[in-house]
Amino acid sequence: MESSSQTNAAVNSSSIDVSRGSTSSSRKRLRTSWTDAHIIFYMDNGTPRRRCQHCHVCWSSTTSTGTIAKHLAEKHRLSCDPDQNSGISQHIQSSIESGRVSHVLEKKIDAAIVKYIVKGTLPHAHVESPEFKEFMQQIVPGYQVKSRRTIKRSILEMYVVLRRQVIDFLSKCQSRFSITFDGWSNSSLKGFYSVTLHWACHETARSRSMLLDFVHVFPGVGSGKRCAHALFSRLRSFVISSRLLATIFDGASDAQVAAKELSMLLQDEHGKEILAPSHMLRCMVHTFQLGIKAALEVISPSTEKLRTVLHTIRSSKVRREVFRKYARMVEHHEREPPRLDVVTRWNSTLEMFRQSIKDRDVLNFTISDLTISSDFNGNVLTGEDWSHIHAMAEWLDTPAEVSTFLGGSRYPTLSLASLAYNCLLNHCNEFLDSSLPGSSRFTQEVLQRASENCLQYLIKYQESLKSIPSRIAMFLDPR
């Protein structure tokens, strides 16, 4: 497609100049061809060219009439028969008025959308949403958005092309690599392991990472060994199996088996130890999660009661309106009820606690409202419940700060593993040795039991959290 900024009037006027500057034989050939009615002649930097009126595909002045006729027949269902063309004249006119994009531009837009989906980690079905289609029509009128299956196929085709480039890049990289792998399942409960590659650039000394692959592993007995063989196959295909430095996993039993089996496969392949046992690292954030979830179990009755109350309010338009009414009365502005937490994510539970504490009076008024009080089935948050929630929210502040820092992706965190472990260890010991000012004796006992539960996991995995690589990294870290 030409990137000319000429108007249609200028294009049409340039066609007159081209016809005048042509030889007599060329003029005769163009005038006697039926394709002449469907072509615009114009000048491009002094070079005569031709353009299709219906889709703006361009040809040089030497392109044969047969090529142009074939294009008109296949793309626009036109022929040299005037009677046949008259039957579709309305279709041609509507195509011109609709601003149909050229084939070249269409391919560029398709590639841009694929990149947009990949970089934004969006679902393939995003392109089929009415909002996205309306957006594209506003930006590029006449463009037909491809289906999610076409987008998926394009992504796989892109992967085939880029995979060779990735292999060439990794082969020239002078660094050693570490991998992280974590299991998850899609909406159909199909199990996958995501494999991420990490290394330090030898030129800039900055950390780099790359999502290497998604590995499908059948669940059940032996899934750990199947995962190891899948990981080993990926490392071999990318020609980096001999340069593996460490593995980081979530600590699940199948992941531990996978790491040990992978070490044996690498040793058999290269005849020497590639992945030492001390370099099979547990993810500290996952280990912290186990301890903190155990601590939250201590106040599970109060937490479940809060979840029930919030679910009851949020599941009804009437009850939500009552909540907004009391929010206007108490806080002088309208707000929505606090969001429910995700049970498997304790940081979302902390956020639910914080929002509920902020809206405590509004929640109490809503529960006591006579028009909807029977909907709660006796689930009333007592003063003791609020004390537990408030105290646990304060107890979780330090673990949340540590976990957020360890979850960073733009700076190295392995060197801070021992420091983070000691920070959380001291945090639990402080609640065991002292009391929380202004709290009842029962609340203090609850927090002490929470600290004890968390300490059990921290002590259990102490050796794995204080690994040799983390100590070396801490020694080398200038921070």
3D structure, described in words:
It is a single chain. This protein has 479 residues and is an alpha/beta fold. The chain folds into 4 domains: 8-97, no CATH class; 103-156, no CATH class; 173-282, Nucleotidyltransferase, domain 5 (2-Layer Sandwich); 296-465, no CATH class. It contains 20 helices and 8 strands. The chain has helices at residues 8-21, 24-32, 65-76, 82-86, 89-97, 103-119, 130-139, 148-172, 223-237, 253-270, 284-296, 300-314, 317-331, 346-358, 360-368, 383-406, 417-433, 441-460, 462-465, 468-476, and strands at residues 39-44, 47-52, 58-60, 177-185, 191-200, 207-216, 244-249, 280-282. The strands form 2 sheets. A 5-stranded mixed sheet has the order 6-5-4-7-8. Strands 1-2-3 form a 3-stranded antiparallel sheet. The longest helix has 25 residues, at 148-172. The protein is flat and about 100 Å long.
Quick recap:
With about 475 residues, this protein is an alpha/beta fold.
Q: Secondary-structure blueprint of this entry?
A:
Elements: H1 8-21, H2 24-32, E1 39-44, E2 47-52, E3 58-60, H3 65-76, H4 82-86, H5 89-97, H6 103-119, H7 130-139, H8 148-172, E4 177-185, E5 191-200, E6 207-216, H9 223-237, E7 244-249, H10 253-270, E8 280-282, H11 284-296, H12 300-314, H13 317-331, H14 346-358, H15 360-368, H16 383-406, H17 417-433, H18 441-460, H19 462-465, H20 468-476
Parallel strand pairs: 4-7, 7-8
Antiparallel strand pairs: 1-2, 2-3, 4-5, 5-6
Helix pairs in contact: 6-8, 9-10, 11-16, 11-18, 13-15, 14-16, 16-17, 17-18
